[in-house]
Amino acid sequence: MSEIRGEKIVEIGPKLVAAPGAREIDASGMLLLPGIVDTHTHLNLEPIVPPNPKGNADDLTSGSAAALAGGITTVSDFIRIENNEDPNAYADRVIGAIQKYSIADTFIHVSINPVSVPVGSPPDPLTQQKTFDVLAARGFVSTGEDFMARESFDKNSLAWMKTFRASGKAGVVSMLHAEDWSIMAEAQERLMTENGGSGGTLHNFAQSAPIVAEVLAVQRGMAIAEATGSPIYILHVSSGRALKVIEDARRRGLPVYAETRPIYLHATAPKVSATRCRPLDWRSTAARQMGSGHALGRHPERRD
């Protein structure tokens, strides 16, 4: 038997007595669980008709409906803020869309892309703490996905460092897509040019994103946390080597966190060709990492 007040389970016991006027629900043969929080989904703010075949298949309404059907009562979403967009205006439009379209509790990771500017030029607002102070005050306390896997990250690395320091001082967590762009770009170029491009097939997908690309980017993320003191969250960790880097950083007291994707708990070496997966002993991992649902898709061809 359980007693629920508001939205919280406050007491569990075999012989609880209902208070006068309390509503009793017979849940015999069922499981009573707290609502699950999905920390990582990609949903459109509003319905797009017809859906963009190259974009997210789901929106706040369809995505949160799918989440609720599976016991997930809180979903997240990644929504971009433009570099010169007023943070209060951003908050107004995003909160307005959530209130209009979402049927589950929803929180937002602010997608950012800061740019470096010439010396003496006005700074990018996304490198300034006041921007993140406003966002945090409106309930936006994380950024992501901060794509280390894109060339623009390296080209604007100074701006990103300023952003990490500024956002951290505002209490905002930075969520990193941790893969090194240069290693992946070279691997992909090689696969597509050698032997007449015969290597550019799905079977060689893992070779296009070598484990060392993730390891190097995660090491860089840990260094950013150490240099700035800002909290860093590594998205969808997929290799044991990268996980060890994170565990070492946590042992040193750095404010770093990680998640994995449920598919990585299944797509392990015994079940998938070794050339298409990254073997990892998740038995020691699952208890430490948050799960990433990624896109809640109804489109049959969507996988991410």
Description:
There is one protein chain. With 304 residues, this protein is α/β, with parallel strands linked by helices. The protein has helices spanning 60-69, 87-101, 129-137, 151-155, 157-169, 181-193, 205-208, 211-228, 240-251, 262-266, and strands spanning 2-5, 8-12, 36-38, 72-80, 105-111, 142-147, 173-177, 232-234, 256-260, 290-291. The chain is built from ten helices and ten strands. α2 links the parallel β4 (72-80) and β5. α8 (211-228) runs parallel beside α9. It is globular.
Q: What oligomeric state do these chains adopt?
A: single chain
Number of helices: 10
Order of helices and strands: EEEHEHEHEHHEHHHEHEHE
Residue windows where pLDDT falls under 50 for at least 5 positions: 271-304
* Percent helix: 25-40%
Main beta-sheet strand count, sense and barrel state: 5 strands, parallel
Order of strands, main sheet, comes to 6-7-8-9-10
Q: What integer value in Å does the Rg equal? A: 22 Å
What is the terminal-to-terminal distance? 40 Å
Report the portion of residues in β strands. 15-25%
Say how many strands there are: 10
Please state the average pLDDT score. Answer: 86
- What gross morphology would you assign? globular
Structural class: alpha/beta
